[in-house]
Structures are given as C-alpha cells and as structure tokens.
UniProtKB/TrEMBL annotation:
Entry's transmembrane regions: 20-43, 49-70
InterPro entries xrefs: DZR, Ribosomal_eL40_sf
Domain DZANK-type, chain residue ranges per copy: 122-167
Lineage start: Bacteria, Thermotogati, Thermotogota, Thermotogae, Kosmotogales
Keyword terms: Membrane, Transmembrane, Transmembrane helix
Superkingdom of origin organism: Bacteria
Protein name: Putative membrane protein
Length: 172
C-alpha cells in the first residue's frame, strides 16, 4: 500500500472514530449530568459522578481525531482562501513600489557608470588609469584619443600618423 493509500485509510478511520468518540463522550456526559442533578432532589449522593472524568477524555480524543481527519481539507480550504489575497497583496505592493524600484535601479546604473567612467583602460597593456591621465602609468602609451579623422570621424591618439579605422594619413 502506498503512503497516500495509508494516509487515506487513516484519514477515513479518524473521520469516523473522531465523531464517534465525541458522541460517546457527550452521551456519557449527559448521563453523568442527569445523575448529578437528580441527586439534588433526593438529597443523596450521585452514583455516576465518575462518568464526568470518563466523558471529558472521550470528547477530547474525539475532537483531536476529527481535527486530524479533516486537517488536509481544512488546509486546502485555507490555502484557497488565502492565495488570492496574498496574490492581490503582492501585486498591490509591486505596483506601488514600481517607481521606487526604477529610481533605485537608475541610481545604481548611474553609480556604476560613474565608477567605470572614472577609469581609462590602456589599449596597449590593459592597465586601469585615472580618467584625467593622458598617458598610461604602466607603459606610457597615450590614453587620450583627441585627434579626429576628417575622413571617417574616428577618434585617434594625438600622436597617430594614420587613422585606426580607415587608414587616412594625418598631415605631419
């Protein structure tokens, strides 16, 4: 028998035994109460007072067994009731915070681009240099590309004799 089959049979037993225990407990409790209150009229002692102490455990066990027998059904019901509320809450919060998230993302992007813009990479050796450096601190290569090719518009090193892109020969 599979685990779900064992669970199913146990659930069925609990769903039957729980209410049965409750019913037996309530019947015993009624018998004990009738005996207790009828003793007032005869001025005698109740004969079945001990049944109170038997009824309470029966009712308790019945309630526990019933709650375990219907636990899955109750959990599924609660989940079906709560899931739409949780979904609506999350959607409401997402909609309400969308602009804030965009602002944070924009700030992060600006911060990253500023930190990347603060450094210049040497094309020859790959060393990171300060953004205001004109020459590489490692190999001395010119970092600034401030000579624009009149033919293609490519920025070239200030000492370049030919354009990096199209080969245009700069005048000496």
């Amino acid at each position: 028998m599979s685990v779900s089959g064992k669970n199913s049979s146990m659930r069925s037993i609990l769903r039957i035994a729980g209410p049965l225990f409750i019913f037996i407990g309530v019947v015993i409790l009624i018998i004990a109460m009738v005996d207790f209150f009828s003793a007032f009229g005869s001025f005698g002692q109740p004969d079945k007072f001990y049944l109170f102490f038997l009824a309470i455990p029966f009712i308790f066990l019945g309630v526990i067994a019933t709650s375990y027998g219907f636990m899955g059904a109750v959990a599924r019901y609660k989940a079906n009731e709560l899931a739409p509320v949780a979904k609506d809450t999350i959607n409401y919060m997402a909609e309400g915070t969308k602009d804030s998230v965009r602002t944070i993302a924009r700030s992060i992007k600006e911060g990253i681009s500023e930190s990347e813009g603060a450094k210049v990479v040497c094309q020859k050796c790959g060393t990171m240099n300060a953004s205001d450096s004109r020459f590489c601190k490692n190999c001395g290569t010119t970092l600034r590309k401030d000579k624009k090719c009149p033919d293609c518009g490519e920025q070239n090193d200030s000492e370049a004799r030919f354009c990096d892109k199209c080969g245009f020969k700069f005048p000496a």
